[in-house]
Amino acid sequence: MSHTGHCLCGAIGFAFDGPVTWVLHCHCESCRRATASPMTTFVSVPDAQLAWSGATPAAFASSPGVTRGFCPTCGSPLFYRNDSLPGETHLYVALLDDPGAFTPEGHDFLEERIVWMQPLPDTRTPHA
To answer: May I ask the CATH class of domain 3-112?
Structure first.
């Protein structure tokens, strides 16, 4: 099944097929600031399965080895890439045309969460 998504203005689209690596909520301070939200949810897609359409995403090196992509027209955050995780791109689930197609497996960087953000019980916490 093909999954598609796009930025707020529709200038940049993406599509991917096949299984994803993981789906997680991220609570790290960098992701919170990049999205102006208390957490964000990513789906990790192997680069070989990902295709972009429309305009070219702009990129920002938010920290050493980390690149965040966004639409230069509307500002929507599009992706996260980390040199320590080669071959995969983390897309924002909320940009998908069917965000309900992916259920988060757990929480990442839970130790950085805002105090009032409580995780669901029985979830995986890779970095906490």
So the answer is: mainly beta
